[in-house]
Design a protein that fits this description.
Elements (H helix, E strand, L loop, with lengths): L14 H14 L1 H19 L4 H17 L1 H6 L15 H36 L13 H32 L2
Helix pairs in contact: 2-3, 3-6, 5-6
Amino acid sequence: MEVGCTGNQADRQDSVAKFIGWIGRGVSWLTLAMVLLTFAVVVLRYGFNQGWIWLQESVTYLHATVFMVAAAWAYQTDDHVRVDIFFRDGSSRYKDGVNLAGTLLLLVPFSLFLLIIGWNYVAASWATTEASREAGGLPLVFLLKSLILIMPALLLLQSWSTARLCFRRLRNRV
């Protein structure tokens, strides 16, 4: 099945795509850590009647990191959610056009919006080096909230790569 500009094509070898792929594959390994930590939390709680807030919060931090940092990689590899009622039967030119339009008209404005509205929220968290409200929780909430800016920044980088590829492929298929 042929996909549009965001799928794994051989003609996408720019440095932005390589960077996004490297980041995505790197954070994907955090899912293993998440599974192991969740297992440890359950065994400690129900097997030994022990529990630590910081351990439970670390699973949440890992989940947020995987989800928000790997979003651009999921877009790059065409593993994102797509409503493909009209897309799946289209020609490759049509798919490239839809991907270019969706990237420029939907993803870029959405990412810019997230950066704009999230900036002050994250900055306020950094200004106070916000920590967990729970006793014994992780003192890194400001780092967790930074993901609110990292996700749209990575999506914008991938949008640049995708738009360039789609435009190049559309231009070459005259």
